[in-house]
Amino acid sequence: MIKIRFKNISIAILLIALFAGSCSKDIIQEEPRGVFTPEFFQTELGVQGGLTYLYENLRDIYGFAYFFNMAETGTDEYVPAQSADNNFFDLDLAGQGQLRPETGFSIGRPWGASWPAINTASGIIENAAAVGLDQSLIAEAQFFRAFYYFLMVQSYGGVPLDLGSGELAFNQTAYRTSVRNTVPEVYSRAILPDLVAAVNNLPESPRITGAVTKNVARLYLAKAYLTYGWWLENPNGIPTYPDTPRIDPDGNGPSYYYQQAYNLAVEGIDNPGPYSLLEYFYDVHDGANDRHAEMMLYAERTEASAIYNGAIVTGFGGTDDTNAAVWMATSNYTTISVDGVAAVQREAAQSYGRPWTRMAPPIGVFTETFNDKDIDSRYDGTFVTSYRGNWDKADDPTPSLTAANGLEIEPGDAVVSFLDEYDPSVNYVNGGNIGGGEIPGRSDYVINLNEINRRFYPGLWKLGTYRTDNAGGLGEPNVGVTRPFPIAKYSEFYLVAAEAAVKGASGSYTARQLVNVLRARAGMWRFDNGEQEERIEDNSAAMLSATPAVIDIDYILAERSREFFGEGYRWYDLVRTQKWNEYADTYEIGGDDASDHSPTVTTRTIEPYHYLRPIPQNQIDAMEATAEEKAAFQNPGY
């Protein structure tokens, strides 16, 4: 047994009235508290406060810039951009960095943020009966304990179930003795039973806005069944740790779990409760439409209050406690200069925000994943494809500027645009001081998507800044995004069920029928984001006819990227399906200069042991153990 020292957990929590008789209240009542104690958990207020902390803690992972990096960089969705440092190079596995237990802020975030939540959930579950907590609220704690264990087992492999006071028991001391449990033990003893209980006991509708429900638990149980099925099958012989036979303790094989995943996902589709697909993909990510019926779970933020937001809402903020993920994927558009004027300035608007230029989409995103840009609205509803003049919002009265081809542009006009289709006639003139080209008759500078570089590329519109307090100006673009960060959507039920069907599950819907529900929605347009104008079109029939007759896992992964691009799914998707090497071993993109339109191919070295992240070194250093025991606690290869 290894004795591990844990620091006391000091947290500021939100205390909320969650009493059974107060479920109609949608307003969170906050009271800062410094620390949870065992005695506090033995009061009704303490248990309620613990539940609220479980929601608040989501913000420590989802929207955190470096977890975003961990979940995206090194995949076929993102690569290091011009201003990347070793936090990003280490995860890219392309030779500029080295993935190590000491790797920056990224690989340790799920580990560091999950343990306090898991222990808090266990404390709630242990003390709930004594304080008379309703079974549905206990189920919320069970959901979150499973949620965080599921994240951990996907990231690191087997993890401890005993935090010092017994398996799944609330740990009340600053020390613990523990060993890492195996992957099957974590699934069979923690993740699956907790999620089954959550499905059985959570309500159909949320008790307050954003609270978990029966269908949220169904989605995660379906995802856990699916992921565990893949782990048991292990089609490419990827190693696991701690080393253990890929045998389910209950004697079930992969096919059983694929079928269970399918059944749960279809049950979620057929019993939606308060959730539904929105009619237009654009509306799923429109900041003015946040917290809608498709969004099942999110890390809450607000511009209304720094206390409720968990971070400052005005001024100049950092990345530690803010929703700053999209900053990493935003190139520095503020250097765009036309006619001697900074034509596109930093603005608290969804296409703009704070540009850190740390992560760039490689060219394959636009030539392969989003190859259909005309009828499939998901490209347009995911990326910033035109950067428009806003110098007037900085009190510059200049009525127009002379731009491409000597033509005039006014505020609101496109200054630099990425072309949907390749145009060989583009003449690159470093237009806009950002590498833009000209084609006859256009006043905006243009760039072909197969000629982008690490310096300037389409931004991630879907997660961009949205505020209501700009008052006609540039607003507050330098603080973290005050939108909720999406974690789970109703749309994922369709792709979980479709993936399970591809793996052999069967039932009332085929994989093609399931995928086509989302593809038909993707054909519906009400607004053209790139052109910034109304576009009423129904291309659903064309989308359905373009769906292949036979759906395979590659098509599922392509659809998952089109639906969930840049939301922190991709590394986990590629690891689950053991396709990471196949999809991401090379990528193409231009260099660090905005005028570089001659892309090159970069080769990554993705080894089998990389399919697990290293245990953070500070955790290893905190062990009271021998050098051999510490080495044995770490994942092999690190």
Model description:
This protein is an alpha+beta fold and 638 residues long. 34% of the residues lie in helices and 12% in strands. The protein has a 3-stranded antiparallel beta sheet with strand order 3-1-22. Strands 9-12-15 form a 3-stranded mixed beta sheet, with no helix packed on it. It has a two-stranded antiparallel sheet with strand order 2-7. Helix 2 runs antiparallel to helix 5, helix 5 packs antiparallel against helix 6 and helix 7 packs antiparallel against helix 8.
Cα-atom radius of gyration: 24 Å
Point out poorly predicted stretches.
Answer: 1-30
Biggest sheet record: 3 strands, antiparallel
Instruction: Work out the helix count.
Output: 21
Hey, roughly how much beta strand do the residues contain? 5-15%
Structural class given helices, strands, pairing?
A: alpha+beta
Please bin the fraction of helical residues.
25-40%
The order of strands across the largest sheet is 3-1-22
Average pLDDT confidence is: 93
End-to-end distance: 21 Å
Task: Walk me through the topology.
Blueprint: E1 2-5, H1 38-41, H2 44-56, H3 65-72, E2 79-80, H4 86-92, H5 109-128, H6 135-156, E3 175-178, H7 183-201, H8 214-233, H9 254-270, H10 281-285, E4 295-299, H11 306-309, H12 325-328, E5 337-338, E6 341-342, E7 359-360, H13 364-369, E8 383-384, E9 386-388, E10 401-402, E11 408-409, E12 414-419, E13 427-431, E14 436-438, E15 445-448, E16 459-460, E17 485-489, H14 492-502, H15 511-522, E18 524-528, E19 533-538, H16 540-546, H17 553-564, H18 570-576, H19 580-584, E20 586-589, E21 600-603, H20 617-621, E22 623-624, H21 627-633
Parallel strand pairs: 12-15
Antiparallel strand pairs: 1-3, 1-22, 2-7, 4-17, 5-6, 8-16, 9-12, 10-11, 13-14, 18-19, 20-21
